[in-house]
Design a protein that fits this description.
Three copies of one chain form a homotrimer.
Chain A: E1 16-20, H1 31-39, E2 43-45, H2 62-75, E3 81-86, H3 89-99, E4 104-110, H4 127-138, E5 144-145, H5 149-156, H6 162-170, E6 175-176, H7 178-181, E7 196-201, H8 215-219, E8 227-231, H9 237-241, H10 243-254
Parallel strand pairs in A: 1-2, 1-3, 3-4, 4-7, 7-8
Antiparallel strand pairs in A: 5-6
Helix pairs in contact in A: 1-10, 2-3
Chain lengths: 256, 256, 256
């Protein structure tokens, strides 16, 4: 899985990872990746956040989601964290970093949203996708959005065998809509001197690749000086089929 | 060749592929790829079209080219087709899909033109390339365009060993010019609900990669919702040197 | 390391490489790559240029740098050269090609600057980077620029293990600033019919990837018709950790 055999002679630096999942996922999204990081000697924490996992309440705000992660970090008294956000998790990492900057060693965004100050995630969607989300939201009874399988299959797990795509779809639940449409105050984030990395998987097509949209360079360059790591993968499949590869890329993004 | 070993445990779904080649090629372009698909259990059809292969008449229109493919499909009564177009073949796939939509399961464009309604292929070429094509066309006696070897070598088979480049060049013949300059009515195409995929090889430089030109995202995003599959290859070399890799990518693009 | 096993059956054509390093490097940058090319039967030359290596004088101009390379080539009477420039070395290749065009078989730019006529390298930097360079320049006593380690680590050797990054940083010295800010007359370069190639490593983030900046397609397409070769690497790391891979890519760029 690891592209460059010459990385092997160097034992991995031991890091403390906190992994923040995205939408249509819960903390189990990280199971394989966390195990691979753990096997390589790292400490790995996988907070669940409001409106996800076993939480029956889907009526949550972005602030509640962020509070879940901030509380997790402070209650466990974690320090020198490599704080990783995937997809929507990028916005949670942005807000979390504002609240506990001294506990964070480096921020890692993996095909994750990096919002401008005052933006919502929905502001960064192509018009057609945004419209689709708004329709799905309007048709739900509890202000959630559920991805239809064909959209999930072709955009989120495009490289997966059908069997894997179905297994991954089977465990997702409707996503609370509000946090995706809330505009976020990110003035503090853009003043933080915390080192930053961006991990980009080049088969990821959740956002179309090109000017005006996309993970890299559109989102990534908002970080200012950042470390770029590129891998061969899509938005979600590799968490299941190639967790050791993902773990290696996150390590490359997180190490000193 | 296949990037992710974890794909192996799942037996391949059996699909029916119809493979439509591009310019400066004939149906033999697909020989290795078709054999690799066939070995994996798929049905594979490789129509030749007007003005190509053994057809002595180079004075053909885009409609004649499309008719060849449509007739091939209807006469063999093919259904549930994965219809694949490479390069210029993308425009043939667009027009074919308009005529036999009910026979098609999914459209796959592999570094292929996806024209806007009312456009010609020539409209999508960078000005310099278009000028070059127009000069080559004007200097021919039968309204064809023959690629000079240095251009073919550096743009179409850039990753090939010289020996392979020469072998591939030896079998190409002058391309009928008219279909490349005809503007196509594609209103019906853009109403089709048929699922679509785009396969992009990132060393392909036939179209310069960037805004205003290029395969992905410039052409691909015209498909609306589509499944992206990315591979390491150029425009033509891998059909000869890596057919099993290409077959795998086409399968990933075509499967449910 | 080499991606396509089918390249192996063809013995490598024997070429004459002249390798021109970039900023914050000296001729030893090429040690591993030159050895790999030599092992494959090529002649390899690695000129040092003014202001670099053992030269104690940092007060140099772009013309002096170019003269070093031109003199090296003419004194050794080299012909049929594959002239390779890396990074800043691209600008040296441009000016050298103007002076000894008849000795050059092909120009190869590897994540290298290709300046427009009348531009300086600094004109191609994003505003923030340019500002940073100007501040570093102003704070030096001898009109040089020294990269701080965090910037070198995250931008130039982003994929490297920390140990490798430190080893590579330990040998770099302050870079003469003047040649980076001199505007170059390149009218002759843009009239040269010499074949050209561009080698792009997709984890290279020294220039942000996107419109207005970046190696490919922003710099590369200035070459007009060119052969593109893409590899998995960053700006400098692979010269140390994957020299055989780099050598293979330069060979693919340089062969007939």
């Amino acid at each position: 899985m690891v592209s460059n055999a010459s990385y092997q002679p160097y034992p991995q630096q031991r890091l403390t990872f906190v992994l923040v999942h995205g939408s249509w996922a819960d903390a189990h999204f990280w199971d394989g990746i966390a195990a691979a990081l753990y096997r390589n000697g790292h400490s790995v924490y996988v907070p669940e956040y409001a409106g996800h996992g076993v939480d029956p309440n889907k009526n949550v705000t972005h602030a509640m989601v962020t509070k879940s992660v901030v509380d997790f970090i402070t209650q466990l008294n974690l320090r020198d964290i490599i704080l990783v956000g995937h997809s929507f998790g990028g916005t949670v990492v942005q807000k979390t970093a504002e609240q506990v900057p001294d506990r964070i060693k480096r921020l890692v965004f993996w095909d994750a949203f990096v919002l401008n100050n005052g933006e919502s995630l929905a502001d960064e969607l192509p018009p057609q996708t945004r419209q689709g989300f708004e329709q799905l939201r309007a048709s739900s009874k509890d202000d959630t959005i559920m991805l239809p399988f064909p959209l999930f299959r072709d955009l989120f797990v495009n490289t997966a065998p059908l069997e894997v795509a179905k297994q991954m779809y089977a465990v997702i639940t409707p996503e609370p809509a509000k946090p995706l449409f809330e505009k976020l105050d990110l003035k503090v984030f853009y003043e933080l001197p915390t080192p930053k990395s961006y991990v980009y998987f080049y088969q990821d097509n959740v956002l179309p690749q090109g000017e005006g949209f996309g993970w890299n360079p559109h989102m990534s360059t908002r970080l200012g000086l950042f470390r770029l790591i590129v891998g061969d993968g899509d938005h979600m499949t590799d968490s299941r089929t190639g967790p050791a590869m993902v773990a290696q890329k996150l390590y490359e993004a997180g190490r000193d």
